[in-house]
Amino acid sequence: MVQKNVRIRDVAKAAGVSTATVSRALSNPELLTEATRETVFSAVRSTGYRVNKAARNLRTRQARAVLVLVPNLGNPFFSQIIAGVNESFDDRGYSVLIADTKDHSAAGKLLVDYFLDAQVDGMICLDGSISNKELLEFDENSATSRIVFACEWVRDSNLPSVRSDNIEGARLAVRHLFELGHTKIAHVTGPQDNVLTHARRQGMLEERTRLGLPAQDQWIIRGDFSLESGRVAAEKIILMDEKPTAVFCASDQVAFGLMSTLTANGLRVPEDISVIGFDDIELSEYYVPALTTIRQDRRGLGKKAASLLMECIDNGLESRRLSAPVMVGVELIVRQSATAMRG
Amino acid sequence: MVQKNVRIRDVAKAAGVSTATVSRALSNPELLTEATRETVFSAVRSTGYRVNKAARNLRTRQARAVLVLVPNLGNPFFSQIIAGVNESFDDRGYSVLIADTKDHSAAGKLLVDYFLDAQVDGMICLDGSISNKELLEFDENSATSRIVFACEWVRDSNLPSVRSDNIEGARLAVRHLFELGHTKIAHVTGPQDNVLTHARRQGMLEERTRLGLPAQDQWIIRGDFSLESGRVAAEKIILMDEKPTAVFCASDQVAFGLMSTLTANGLRVPEDISVIGFDDIELSEYYVPALTTIRQDRRGLGKKAASLLMECIDNGLESRRLSAPVMVGVELIVRQSATAMRG
DNA sequence: ATGATTGATGTAATCGATTACATACAAATT
DNA sequence: AATTTGTATGTAATCGATTACATCAATCAT
């Protein structure tokens, strides 16, 4: 006979024990005798009791919720990361809130407000472009110990973070193109000042140098991870006298925009020019041509970020503050968009 | 001099009033004199006071949070809807939780558990595949007055919902193909028993009949909205003796899978076969060929669902229970994947 | 002038769970 | 047998905001 608004007192009465005992049965069962524990459990079942989170949160001064900050929810790249975060936190009985930094910076809301409103115990930030002002606010409110960065991170800070091995990913990409016989390799970067842009470009340049490949300034094309920037990059390539034979794009979306525009202008992919992406989102497998790319383990990144954050929340920051970023491996996924040089 | 853990009592002391007055200043300012109101406001500012949501939620028996249930977070279709929901609820000071029904039906969790556990005030459900048993549970917990369906809905129920005009969308698609000179039109449906599948197929069939176009059973191909089902559909089409000259797909993702496989098997899109999708997700514009499709106003759907839910929460269900679904218009987006018949 | 009405503010109970401390009883130690 | 130790459970204070009710003063009607 399940009814609503069952309070812990009702369960206690039904089980013939005190509210303290019921509370213990649920959160520290090892403190009770087998017998009382079972009595309480059966009372919980028969009454259909659920703890009232507001009451518990008030008493324990916790929120049992975390916030995931996404630079742009419309970008399908993030969905799997969120799914991973969700998975981990559901097990712990935490709620996961999601906010789009794009929407919020427009609304003039500061990130630290979430902490001050005591809505969340911690935060996973997928956006590394946090202003110094915001970070300072965090410090002032001792919130820095409850924030974890994932995928992106803040340059020159030692805030805990989880990230793919971007440098290695870029190297894998360049090496793969080299092994296919390409020497004139271009790179469409991400947005300026972005840490991922920097890491991937660095890996690309290092590997190109290591392999002794030719370099031209015009082959490093500034983009911003978007489809549109892939289009723009393609238009630049089309106008080049000395065209690259392969392009390494800083994201899959850039690769899509690039390939579409190249194709529309009579340059075939991969016959005339090879393309390789970075991320491996769902669609990459089905694009025409299917995209050769560097896979990031997105769900894994989300799960790891979640456990790192739980650790920060449970133990405070001491151990974590100075720790190295958690690195997640990347993998080359060979499909159809990059092929061996002709002749 | 902002410090943390400021309670309403501290503000009251600073302002020389009672806690009741502070509370009123914040939630019913019109009850106070201009003078006291200002005194309280300046005390709030100088102390940096923030209401403790747990305490407020406990006292008012609200959660000030809603849940969005998504069938599959990895599907980029949903991101914009969530963004719309977020936008609306942020203004009202509500938190938005997101859960993936796929992750949870595996865990044997019932939908009504989200209400009982997560303690949310309402729910926006993007998944229409709710069993009768589940709905009954909702009724028993008088939760039916706080649930709104968006995009999908439950067949034969009059639960409040917001949806695109799917029938009209399908008609637009068929009409467009007809105007391009196509008469042999196939349709890759969504999953069986899905309300969207039904509506889009109905619209397609009705318009085909209205235009007096030929019908063949094999031209209605069962799919499930996924890329993979697009592949499978393409393989069936390739084997047909009498091939359709155009295919209307129940989702953009189906269209991607279909086009990729057709192309890989030497059938060019749109030269040999025209394809039209449904949804208009971000990538559709950049696919090769860019996808002609029916646009759903996803952000608008999210925002409308949010206001409908707020209405339900504020006013109870009376007015809403019997109301007709809120319809959101769709739009034909002409791109490159569908073209005029040759000859 | 007296009682009724209105408006502004204060007092204190309340929401429901957790947990420090108190108590009771049993087992172990002397 | 008396004391100590340990284990299981109960009592009641507490978290912080809201709000029904009480109070008081000012205004109004008679």
Structural overview:
Two copies of one chain form a homodimer. Chain A has 343 residues and is an alpha/beta fold. Chain A folds into three domains: 8-51, 434 Repressor (Amino-terminal Domain) (Orthogonal Bundle), CATH 1.10.260; 60-164 and 299-328, Rossmann fold (3-Layer(aba) Sandwich); 166-297, Response regulator (Rossmann fold). The first copy, chain A, contains 14 helices and twelve strands. Chain A has helices at residues 8-15, 19-27, 34-47, 53-60, 79-91, 101-107, 112-116, 132-140, 166-179, 195-210, 227-239, 252-264, 298-315, 318-321, and strands at residues 65-70, 95-100, 122-125, 147-150, 161-164, 185-188, 220-221, 246-249, 274-279, 292-296, 326-328, 330-333. In chain A, the strands form two sheets. Chain A has a six-stranded parallel beta sheet. Chain A has a six-stranded mixed beta sheet with strand order 7-6-8-9-10-12, sandwiched between helices. In chain A, strand 6, helix 10 (195-210) and strand 7 (220-221) form a beta-alpha-beta unit. In chain A, helix 1 crosses helix 2, helix 2 crosses helix 3 and helix 5 (79-91) packs across helix 13 (298-315). The longest helix of chain A is centred in the last third of the chain and has 18 residues, at 298-315. The termini of chain A are far apart. The model of chain A has no long low-confidence stretch (mean pLDDT 90). At the A-B interface, helix 4, helix 5, strand 2, helix 6 and helix 11 of A face helix 4, helix 5, strand 2, helix 7 and helix 11 of B. The first copy, chain A, binds a DNA duplex (30 and 30 nucleotides) through residues 7-9, 17-24, 27, 31-33, 36, 51-61.
